[in-house]
Specification:
By secondary structure, this protein is an alpha/beta fold. The protein is built from nine helices and 15 strands. The strands form two sheets. It has an eight-stranded mixed sheet. It binds zinc ion.
């Protein structure tokens, strides 16, 4: 019995030793998303998170790849991400859509069709996805985020949680855009770029009623609970925080990774800090902090980072560059950010 136990222990140690250190994981040294053919993490404890613009991130864990939002194609006035929807042809297990605004959604039907991914979205987004005819009903799940909507993957479960769309006043955003335009060095867009942007901008039409309902009923956050206790919270619009989000945190002291919204210039920090206080992430990765070149000013990360450090000195806030792997060992919480 003792010998057997020793053998099992030795095997476990041996198995652990065979995996590369975090900084030597091929997936943590590559800028290529796994969905586009990049390496998967070899260590079954390692999760690789990759920023793909706006609020889009990829999660690769074991044999599973999940896209958080699917607005991969970029408008001409955005910083190109270096990834196109056509590249996302490998196995994608699920696309978790935050809400029915184009930059979170417009490539979900195409990538869903290319990869056979399960597409999870709110009722407004699924109405549009269904209309494209690209994703079978069997591969689409409509969620409202009010409890009990859980999806199982290899080593973790995902629960849909009702979020809230940002309510930054239009007047404020117009001032932000005007200020950005006034200091922009870049020239205007070519007719081709304008046509490209018009096509993408009009791709996901919503009715006036849907635009209203989207704010309180159509924004879905996702809570990922790993079998080993590791947790991730993701939301792609800047709230405020909701009862459903408070419910999912009941009995939990914190999450390990928080994909936390940061949107709306100087109005954003107090809202983002409400999320930080609720989720208390060990590692905070921002969503929708994208600077919309020429039209909106970049979201400065410094003031937010200082506010987080003052109140939560043990939270690590990272704004990763596009496609850079953020690797975390879900068992040990060791963190490595590639370059
Ligand atoms: Zn939106």
């Amino acid at each position: 019995m003792l010998l057997t136990a020793l053998f099992v222990l030795a095997s476990a140690l041996g198995a652990r030793a065979q995996y590369p250190s975090l900084d030597q994981e091929p997936a943590c040294r590559s800028l290529l998303p796994t969905a586009a053919g990049g390496p998967r993490p070899q260590n079954p404890d390692v999760a690789v998170l990759r920023f793909l613009g706006v609020a889009n991130y990829e999660l690769a864990y074991r044999d599973t790849v999940v896209l958080l939002d699917a607005g991969i194609e970029t408008l001409s006035w955005w910083e190109p991400s270096g990834v196109t929807p056509e590249m996302m042809t490998k196995d994608v297990d699920a696309i978790l859509v935050g809400h029915a605004h184009g930059e979170h959604l417009w490539d979900a039907p195409y990538i869903g069709e290319q990869t056979g991914a399960l597409v999870v979205a709110d009722p407004i987004a699924t109405r549009w996805i269904r209309g494209t005819g690209r994703v079978d009903d069997a591969r689409m799940k409509t969620v409202k985020g009010l409890g009990g909507e859980t999806f199982r993957f290899n080593g973790f479960s995902v629960e849909a949680v009702l979020g809230h769309h940002n309510i930054v006043p239009d007047e404020y955003m117009q001032k932000d855009r005007a200020a950005a335009a006034a200091v922009a060095l870049k020239g205007g867009l070519t007719p081709e770029q304008q046509a490209h942007d018009r096509r993408l901008g009009g791709m996901v039409p919503t009715t006036p009623d849907e635009r209203t309902r989207l704010i309180t009923e159509g924004t879905i956050a996702y809570f990922l609970a790993f079998d080993n206790g590791f947790t991730i919270f993701y939301t792609d619009s800047a709230g405020p925080t909701t009862d459903a989000e408070r419910r999912i945190m009941q009995g939990r002291p914190n999450v390990d990774i928080g994909f936390i919204p940061y949107y709306g210039g100087e109005l954003a920090i107090p809202i983002t800090m409400d999320y930080i206080r609720l989720f208390k992430p060990h590692v905070m990765l921002p969503t929708h902090h994208d600077g919309h070149r020429n039209r909106m000013l970049d979201m400065p990360m410094g003031p937010l980072g200082l506010a987080i450090r003052d109140e939560f000195p043990r939270t690590t806030a990272i704004a990763p560059l596009l496609r850079v792997p953020v690797c975390i060992n879900t068992a040990t919480r060791e963190l490595y950010v590639g370059n």
